[in-house]
Write a structure and sequence with these properties.
alpha/beta, D-Maltodextrin-Binding Protein, domain 2, 2 domains, 14 helices
Length: 368
């Protein structure tokens, strides 16, 4: 009964918001940068556009991208981009680079703000079926596709390798391929391992030709080796469930995971703040709809704002609206009743005084 009442009130409020917005001169046109076209990020973006932005009177265009590092850059510098999906290890890498004295990294990351944590993304280490490898710690000195430069996958792959083996992937062993190209290269034996980061069930695998699926498998995490212990300094245990890929996996596969976040900028312009506040209200009010009708990963998202580590900040206007709405939802369920102006900034120029480091290259902080 309570859920029915809440759903009805949410629908009426959404219609009222949209009507008022249209009367004021039409919807705001914003963009959200997501990920590769067959990945999970782009589906999450589409859900936000349909079930959250549209009821709030916002026309949200869902933009594909190479992944998290590119999203950080576009969130910061591309006109019209107001929202981005970013992996936690990529966000932290920018903060670490800024704290180490990299001016470009500081210029890029410090004005960005979090809206809320989303879900965990599973990390797939994919090999051919005839590969002698069975566990993740066996990839040392193999030819590896780390994902496109600028993607969160590239950051995760290189960070994991360095953690596990205390050294970077040898340059001659690195390939920077898209997910689809990596699988194709794997099958024809041009590479040994394809690293893919995606929330399950990932369309890359659910839509894949069964004959192609039969030629690949996923490496398991061995919990008893020192490489896994070192990897868990940054990443967390997870399971790729057989139920997510019944036509591919014969059993669950233990792996590692990384958190996804919804990110914005520290906007201070009145209209932008107002639009994003409506987005926050709609996100809270339509959260049940996201979990019911959106990608299965929404069922793993909690409507909460947990404490953040040093250097991470929520966007204050949205934080206030979300906390108020979360408290109201909790009360109803229980039976009760920074200023900054966004400017048309230019991307930081490549540092010409010294060679570009591998980390700067992955974060798109220098020329290619």
């Amino acid at each position: 009964m309570l859920k029915t009442i809440l759903t009805g009130l949410t629908g009426l409020l959404s219609l009222l918001i949209a009507s008022l917005t249209m009367a004021a001169g039409g919807p705001a046109h914003y963009k959200i940068v997501t990920g590769q076209e067959r990945g999970t990020y782009i589906q999450i973006g589409a859900d936000l556009a349909k079930y959250v932005a549209q009821p709030a009177g916002i026309d949200l265009e869902v933009m594909p991208s190479k992944g998290s590092a590119e999203n950080v850059q576009r969130m910061r510098f591309e006109p019209g981009v107001k929202l981005a999906l970013v992996q936690s290890d990529v966000y932290q890498a920018y903060i670490d680079m800024a704290n180490s004295g990299n001016v470009d990294a500081g210029t890029t990351i410090r004005p960005l703000r979090l809206i809320m944590p989303l879900y965990n993304e599973e990390i797939y280490f994919v090999v051919r079926n005839d590969s002698p490898m069975t566990t993740m710690n066996e990839i040392k000195d193999k030819v590896i596709s780390i994902g496109p430069i600028g993607s969160g996958t590239a950051q995760s792959a290189t960070t994991l390798y360095r953690l596990m083996f205390n050294e970077p992937i040898p340059e001659q062993n690195v390939q920077s391929l898209s997910n689809e190209d990596a699988i194709a290269a794997l099958v024809v034996k041009k590479i040994d391992v394809a690293v893919i980061v995606a929330g399950q069930p990932a369309k890359l695998f659910t839509d894949m030709n069964p004959d192609l699926l039969a030629q690949i498998r996923v490496l398991r995490v061995d919990p008893n080796v020192p490489e896994t212990a070192r990897a868990k300094q940054t990443y967390f245990p997870a399971t790729i469930r057989q139920g997510s890929y019944p036509n591919w996996l014969k059993e669950d596969v233990p792996t590692l995971t990384v958190k996804a976040f919804l990110v914005t900028y520290d906007y201070g312009l009145r209209d932008t703040v107002s639009n994003l506040n409506r987005f926050a209200d709609s996100l809270c009010e339509n959260f049940d709809v996201l979990q019911e009708k959106g990608h299965p990963k929404w069922k793993q998202v909690k409507l909460e704002l947990p404490p953040l580590t040093k250097g991470w900040q929520y966007y204050p206007p949205i934080e206030r609206h979300l906390r108020s709405c979360i408290a109201h939802r909790a009360s109803m369920a229980a039976g009760g009743t920074t200023t900054s102006t966004a400017t048309s900034a230019q991307p930081p120029k490549a540092n010409k005084q010294r060679p570009c480091s591998d980390q700067e290259r992955l974060l798109l902080l220098c020329g290619k």
